[in-house]
Specification:
alpha+beta, 7-stranded mixed beta sheet, 7 strands, 23% helix, globular
């Protein structure tokens, strides 16, 4: 499904982010073949890849970028650590691997939650910095947080994009492909700040 959707888009010079369902070799190969880049999360459903990343010495890697937000009665701190991709990584075209951690406390500093996420990225560090990777991942999480909302005319409530952010607004494709498009987004890979990135339209 991802290949069918991405095949309708000019991905040359664009960066694709997606949820872990799309972290597959065939999708990475397709994006690379047409001149695109990718930033993809790695979860335990891709056990071999997850284990390879999880085994890296993250405790010896300095935090490359950190940001703290305060709002909605809580304080959220996000950090990212980045390493060059190991040569024997069982996934194609990866140049950077990352560990992102998110810590949430209440306004008094009491812990609320802590989340760690691994990921892979095809752009080289000179193309997308650690701060840029962190931003792309955060934008993807924002998209995923909306994907359950109903899109007009599409029957499945669990995989739709928000009405105000329909499939066409993401990638100029018909509404019947919104199942995948709710979790796929394309941007310029060189953008490190939210103000400079725009969806393909």
């Amino acid at each position: 499904m991802a290949g069918a959707v991405l095949g309708q888009i000019d991905l040359h010079g664009k960066l694709v982010s997606a949820d872990a369902l799309h972290t597959v070799k065939a999708t990475a190969e397709f994006i690379h073949k047409v001149g695109g880049e990718f930033v993809l999360p790695v979860k335990e459903n891709r056990k071999t890849l997850f284990d390879a990343l999880d085994a890296l010495s993250w405790d010896q890697v300095p935090v490359a970028h950190s940001v703290t937000d305060r709002g909605h009665g809580r304080i959220t701190t996000r950090t990212i650590q980045v390493l060059p991709a190991p040569e024997d990584l069982p996934f194609p075209h990866v140049k950077q691997v990352m560990l992102i951690e998110r810590y949430v406390t209440d306004l008094h500093g009491n812990p609320v939650s802590a989340v760690a996420a691994l990921g892979v990225a095809s752009p080289a560090p000179e193309q997308v910095s650690a701060a840029g990777l962190a931003w792309h991942v955060r934008e993807q999480w924002a998209i995923e947080s909306l994907h359950w909302l109903r899109s007009p005319g599409v029957p499945s409530p669990s995989h739709d994009v928000a009405p105000e952010r329909s499939a066409e607004s993401f990638c100029n494709t018909p509404p019947w492909v919104s199942c995948s498009l709710s979790l796929l987004f394309c941007r310029s890979p060189s953008r490190d700040r939210a103000s400079g990135a725009t969806p393909v339209a």
